Amino acid sequence: MDDSDSTTGTSRRPHILRLAMFVAFLLTMFYLVAVARVIDIDAVRRTVTSTGPMAPLVYVIVSGFLGAMFLPGSILAAGSGLLFGPVLGLFVTLGAAMGTAIVASTVGRRAGRDSARVLVGPKRAERIDFVIERGGLWAVVGQRFVPGISDAFASYTFGAFGIPLWQIAIGSFIGSAPRAFVYTALGASIRDRSSPLAYAAIAVWCVTAVLGVFAARHLYRHWRSHPGRGEEDHTSDDAEDA
Q1: What is d(CA 156, CA 133) in angstroms, rounded to the nearest whole number?
Q2: How many whole angstroms separate alpha carbon 137 and alpha carbon 213?
Q3: CA gap 119, 234 in Å, rounded
Q4: E-assigned strands of the chain?
Q5: Which of 18, 23, 67, 235 has the greatest CB tally within 10 Å of its CB?
């Protein structure tokens, strides 16, 4: 075995261990919050309500952290609609979505960015940087449209791969708007599920799900068809030599 290979393998082990511990922490938190449900959401709502006029701001802050802990955003958004109505509740939900994105991406960046870049290798890291530079904001927006992907987990991943915080925050605000309306409206109309607001929410959810499928397909094709800077330079050099 080449000594350089051995050295490379040894140098990668701390990064592998660090990422493994980070993933284990996230999975444990996901199990406790999303599966075992150790957090009493009704108690959270009562606590928020007790703060009076500050309740919307308090709910934004609390929901931002709870979302980063993998409490489903649909539950938080429905609670926002139930407490504050469809209009104010929508802005509260969007504020909470941005808060979750900021918290999760910041943690992801600090905990895993350096290790992730080492493990994917310099060429792939360069390609990721190129894609981020060309469309990091819209990658975040597109992800929010894709059904079945945890926004918190995606934000941890975006942070780990170095997408700028402002892109994650703004992309989260834009991309979360349709689903924020859906779940907030459903929460606001929970006592009258036959109201026009409930039907509008269901219609928006269906449209968003369809757009999400196309968004996922487009993002995948964009990733496959756009090489990084290093690969582009190499291709152009080969063309000049020919």
Answers
A1: 18
A2: 18
A3: 22
A4: none
A5: 67
CA atoms within 13 A on the CB side of 198: 11
CA distance 24 to 167: 27
Q: Side chain identity at 25, as an amino acid letter? A: F
Answer for the pair 96, 60: CB distance below 8 angstroms, yes or no: yes
Q: What is the pLDDT of residues 82-118, one digit of tens each?
A: 999 999 999 999 999 999 999 999 998 887 767 766 6
CA 127-131-133 angle, 5° bins? 115
Residue range 123-136, pLDDT digits in tens: 776 776 666 767 77
**Apex CA 162: angle with CA 233 and CA 127, to 5°?**
20
Q: How do residues 204-235 score in pLDDT, each as one tens digit?
A: 888 887 877 776 676 667 656 655 444 444 44
Q: Which amino acid is at 196?
A: P
CA dist 189 and 185 (Å) reads: 6
0.85 surpassed by pTM: no
For the chain, give the number of residues. Answer: 242
Which structure tokens are listed for 83? Answer: 């407490």
- 181: Cβ–Cβ under 8 A, 6 or more apart, which residues? 90, 201, 204
Name the CA dihedral angle for 145, 181, 88, 84, rounded to a multiple of 10 degrees.
-120
* SS3 state at 123: helix
- Which is more confidently placed, 220 or 157? 157
Query: How many angstroms separate the first and last alpha carbons of the chain?
Result: 37
∠173-179-182 over CA atoms, to 5°?
130
